[in-house]
């Protein structure tokens, strides 16, 4: 074969190797019912605790800056795991419980076959669907990581006060672009945030403004009632979308147009010229948002995956085999 052609082939294989090894039918022979087993668990869990849906989608995101279920590993005396990083302490227990329950149900039928990382990917898709969001086919074949470090989560994940510049830079390090950023942020159309994630926007924004001027004043006064400047309940959470907090819809973008984005990184998407156009589009065309979200979730679900013989198929998602 021509040398240049061979080189080109090698480069192509290397660049696309991790996602190329994921496939929709990965468990077709080894665990053909995996999707229906996980769906059953998602349904039951959602009936019991509807907050599990948003919580699990967030868990997937926090895992997926390297989708290998390293986020579900527990700390050991020798190692502080990702889940104990400050940024992950607010990941809800119901999300971890959903993964544990789904994995247990899958293990009962196909022991040692399906990774925790794939269980989390399927669960996430199912929860988005159950709350009215888009459906997509989940590519599978991820293997579970054996390393989980709190410092990695702190270094990799974006902060609530990030500007669009910082968000774009952070997403780019994972191969995600502006469209991915705006569409994935739309996951903040459901679920909740703790007061400490946005209270600086209400009380001590800057030397010239006590309140973030991009925030609607009626929205701010509602938030102040639940999140007082002093003596508030640190466990209290506020919905990202107060009207439909359990629905996956495009209300997030409509809220941004009205200055009702909850955390800085949300409202910034409307303040910044580069992302504003897309926010406007998604606020008007729900289906365009759904399509972009499904594509971006597929892309995010392939970041840093372990395939082939790397990693392992964990038996218990909270510890390595
Ligand atoms: C763009 C950068 C992002 C930032 C700065 C960010 C930040 C946050 C913050 C501060 C919270 C509230 C945490 C708490 O106080 O409990 C939150 C919640 C949440 N995030 Fe994000 N996030 C981002 C992107 C994403 C992405 C890409 C997804 C998923 C695709 C996502 C899904 C969620 C969900 C569903 C919740 C609600 C969780 C619950 O109700 O338990 N976020 N995020």
UniProtKB/TrEMBL annotation:
Q: Kindly state what the record says about how the cofactor is bound.
A: Binds 2 calcium ions per subunit. Binds 1 heme b (iron(II)-protoporphyrin IX) group per subunit.
Q: Which GO terms describe its molecular function?
A: heme binding; lactoperoxidase activity; metal ion binding
The record places domain Plant heme peroxidase family profile at 21-321
Reaction(s) this enzyme catalyzes, per UniProt: 2 a phenolic donor + H2O2 = 2 a phenolic radical donor + 2 H2O
* Residues binding Ca(2+) 1, per UniProt: 63, 66, 68, 70, 82
The protein's name? Peroxidase
The organism encoding this protein is: Selaginella moellendorffii (Spikemoss)
Q: Where does Ca(2+) 2 bind?
A: 189, 241, 244, 249
Q: What is its main location?
A: secreted
Residues bound to heme b are 188
Q: Which PROSITE patterns match?
A: PEROXIDASE_1 (PS00435), PEROXIDASE_2 (PS00436), PEROXIDASE_4 (PS50873)
Q: Which residues bind substrate?
A: 158
Q: Which InterPro entries match?
A: Haem_peroxidase, Haem_peroxidase_sf, Peroxidase_pln, Peroxidases_AS, Peroxidases_heam-ligand_BS, Secretory_peroxidase
Q: List the disulfide bonds.
A: 31-110, 64-67, 116-317, 195-227
